[in-house]
Specification:
It is found in: Cytoplasm. Belongs to the WD repeat MORG1 family. This is WD repeat domain-containing protein 83. Keywords: Cytoplasm, Repeat, WD repeat. The chain is mainly beta. It is built from no helices and eight strands. The strands form two sheets. It has a four-stranded antiparallel beta sheet with strand order 1-2-3-4, with no helix packed on it. Strands 5-6-7-8 form a four-stranded antiparallel beta sheet, with no helix packed on it. Strand 1 and strand 2 form a beta hairpin. The radius of gyration is 18 Å and the shape is elongated.
Amino acid sequence: MAFPEPKPKKPELPQKLLATLECKQGAIRAVRFNVDGNYCLTCGSDKSLKLWNPHKRTLLKTYCGHGYEVLDAAGSFDNSQLCSCGADKTVVLWDVATGQVIRKFRGHAGVRCILSFGVLGK
């Protein structure tokens, strides 16, 4: 007689607070982690985007270039670029290392508030 395989447990959310980040960005509109969880981005109502090492609770860089609050952000798969969108109806592509704007996309009819990097051809 064969016994059925045990069902794997569903992933559970943490039950206790591990750490907090003092962002000082006003209201935080989004928090996004990179693919391997070693970095996170916070998007603030103060028009800034901040890059953190969440394990050490260290601020690595602040990116400023939006005219209104930053609503969402995403990092590229190789961690070399960031993309952010704001209430100013712009989408900004950033160089992570230098903090410089690579390109600013303007002219959207409405506010863009969800971002994702994709793979070409997929």
